[in-house]
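Input.
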Amino acid sequence: MASKQDQMNELQKKNLEAAMRLAQMSIENSQRIMEIQVNAAKRLFEEGVENARALTAAKDPKSMMDMRAHFAQNTTEQMLACARQITEITAATQAEFGKLIGEQLSTGSADMFEAMQKMFKGMPIADQNALGAMQTAMDTTRAAFEQMTRASTEAFQSFTQQAGKGRR
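Output.
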């Protein structure tokens, strides 16, 4: 009985370690995104003050309109660059999450399957059909997750490519 408890404890330990890695990654990437946003806001504010000063020195309406158009274009480019950076971080994070979860599903289902096999072997009647059904369910879940991960990664890549084309 102690070995079954040890097996369950080991599974829980692996799941906790994976959850901690995911949480740490999430925190680090959130910090990176916030840093990008804060730097962009600070830069845009400082440029806004400089732009306002430059506009007060404008001699005629045409030069004022030209300055405003230039300032608007510059601001738009900076906002798009910021959005691109955030999208790249998000795509990389999603890929890493997918990789970690895929590994967890793969090793976790194998560990769970082994634990179930041992549990069934300890029972008076070992039902191989039940084991087969469990393995099939775990394999199907893992395959579905991998397919979702691939599809969402492709969607992010497509979005990034479209954003890059829109800039040109």
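The longest helix spans residues 61-121.
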